[in-house]
Design goal:
The protein is α/β, with parallel strands linked by helices and about 500 residues long. The chain has 14 helices and 20 strands. The chain has 2 domains: about 1-165, Leucine Aminopeptidase, subunit E, domain 1, CATH 3.40.220.10; about 190-495, Zn peptidases (Aminopeptidase, 3-Layer(aba) Sandwich), CATH 3.40.630. The longest helix is centred in the middle third of the chain and has 26 residues, at about 165-190. The chain is elongated. Bound molecules: ligand BES, zinc ion and manganese (II) ion (MN).
């Protein structure tokens, strides 16, 4: 797909569809009036008819009259004061998705006044719209179906219309948006693929391919070496399945090398290729969703590729502990005591609290490899989805300045987080009769306790992103297909790129 920038007026664009964001109620005094006039009054007619209310993501297709575009697509952006980076990103995706099933080879998007409402101005809006269109073109059914009816169109050309802009700078912003969007889509496909397709070994092979494509170092640790290293929690989860576990380690830059901010950043992602719960087996209802319990791993694997494409050589470590959590004669039993990589004796009271076990060892291992700053991302709890729903990711961290640095990257990425406290007073509730601690305490405060558990397995600044509610959508939204949505990928990319030289 070719990316083009037009710094002239929207009526100069030639494209199959010209998309027009409408901020607030349509106002035909400014350039929208001129577009309306050239379209023979189509926009005003759509507004009068009720097709163009200005409600966010409501999108109306109309005739383009004398304009050189084939059709118009007017789309509500919502009230001016509520527009954010997240909304601009979603707007790009909603435009592309509204065109699903239509014959569209070229799409032009006019920026309108969007840039007045987000920090970063026109370049940011261009980047986010392109990223949105790329992500909006994602069709999960295309993974296993040879042809999909009503898929979003595969565009030959995407044109951004920013009157008076700097074409070269905007071209770079558009390219950045494309690469971040493609990375999110890679993460989505890895996460969406079925468990009979993506085992820990297959996930490791995907990581090796990505390493080869991007000149990254890769180390895949098999159970024998994991045992020699002492990764007792990781192995305890993996042992119940015939598909053996793999600790996947990807690195860009040199071993232990510090980035421009003096960090050796590690991103760690939960890679449970299927979570049945193990012996503490889950109820059948919606268990099929647990193929997406590898979303964190998919996210960090895709993020290190995106960083390598945008700023090759940037120091970054990505670790994805990959396992299948299954019941069977070899499975870990509730009450089994295992020795974690950091030496703690852990009482596995619930085998369904497996994510924290594999992540704990992965965090310790990241520090052994020289990480100075840690972020993990995981579909860790159902509790976070009850608390925050599908649009806000729960985030934990310590010390606070590191948490704030990760949130600054989240702001740039246009992603929403809410901080969950690490309540020290609850730590005694995780005491074990026999070991140093248990992996799952009582249900009260279970979300907080999931973070408290992870905190025991690192010594360096650390943030934990629980995407259990946000990682995948159960129903399609105007801006995303159902299934994995790539959440947190852009946050991790922005965080790593902050240290690029
Ligand atoms: N992968 C699940 C969490 C999850 C559930 C994510 C549903 C998305 C949708 C995780 O491994 C899990 O089973 N967590 C338990 C923890 C409990 C046993 C302490 C949970 O949330 O119920
Ligand atoms: Zn899980
Ligand atoms: Mn589980």
């Amino acid at each position: 797909m070719q990316l083009s920038i037009i710094t002239g007026q929207p009526w100069q664009a030639t494209a199959d569809v010209l998309a027009l964001p409408i901020i607030g109620k349509p106002d035909f005094d400014g350039p929208l009036g001129e577009l309306n006039r050239r379209a023979g009054g189509e926009l005003a007619a759509l507004a009068a008819f009720g097709e163009l209310s200005g409600e966010r993501y409501q999108a109306a297709l109309g005739a383009a009259g004398d304009l050189s575009a084939g059709r118009l697509l007017a789309i509500g952006a919502g009230e001016a004061e509520t527009i954010s980076r997240e909304i601009v990103h979603h707007l790009g995706a909603a435009i592309e998705r509204r065109l699903a099933g239509r014959t569209v080879h070229s799409l032009a998007i006019w920026l309108g006044d969007l840039a007045e409402h987000v920090e970063g101005g026109v370049a940011t809006v261009v980047e986010l719209l392109v990223r949105g269109v790329i992500e909006g073109s994602y069709e999960p059914k295309a993974i296993y179906l040879a042809s999909v009816e009503s898929a979003p169109p595969a565009l030959d050309e995407l044109i951004l219309i920013a009157p008076g802009g700097d074409a070269a700078a905007l071209g770079r912003a558009a390219e950045r948006g494309r690469i971040i969007g493609e990375g999110a889509n890679l993460a989505r496909t890895l996460a969406n693929r079925a468990s009979n397709d993506v085992s820990p070994i297959v996930l490791a092979e995907a990581a090796q391919d990505i390493a080869a494509r991007n000149g990254l170092s890769v180390d895949v640790i098999e159970p024998k070496r994991a045992a020699e290293l002492g990764m007792g929690m990781f192995l305890a989860v993996g042992r119940g399945s015939d598909n053996p576990p793999r600790m996947i380690v990807l690195r860009s830059g040199g071993a232990g090398e510090l980035d421009g901010l003096g960090r050796h950043l590690a991103i760690v992602g939960k890679g449970v290729c299927f979570d049945s719960g193990g012996i503490s087996i889950k109820p059948a209802d919606r268990m099929e969703e647990m193929k997406m319990d590898k979303t964190g791993a998919a996210t960090v694997i895709a993020a290190i590729e995106t960083v390598a494409r945008l700023a090759p050589g940037t120091p970054l470590l990505a670790i994805a502990p990959a396992v299948e959590n299954m019941p069977g004669p070899h499975s870990t039993r509730p009450g089994d005591i295992v020795r974690a990589l950091n030496g703690k004796q852990v009482d596995i009271t619930n085998t369904d609290a497996e994510g924290r076990l594999i992540l704990g060892d992965a965090l310790t291992y990241a520090e052994q490899l020289g990480a100075t700053h840690l972020v993990d991302v995981a579909t860790l709890t159902g509790a976070v989805s009850r608390a925050l729903g599908h649009l806000v990711t729960g985030a934990f961290g310590t010390p606070q300045p590191w948490y704030d640095a990760v949130m600054a990257a989240g702001d740039l990425a246009g992603e929403r987080y809410w901080q969950i406290p690490l309540v020290d007073d609850y730590v005694p509730e995780m005491d074990s009769w026999y070991g140093d601690l248990q992996n799952s305490g009582s249900a009260e405060g279970s979300l907080v306790k999931s973070g408290l558990f992870l905190r025991e397995f690192r010594t360096k600044p650390w943030v934990h992103l629980d995407i259990g509610g946000t990682g995948y959508f159960r129903k399609p939204l105007p801006f995303a297909a159902r299934g994995s949505n790539g959440v947190s990928h852009a946050t991790l990319v922005e965080l790593a790129l902050a240290g690029a030289r």
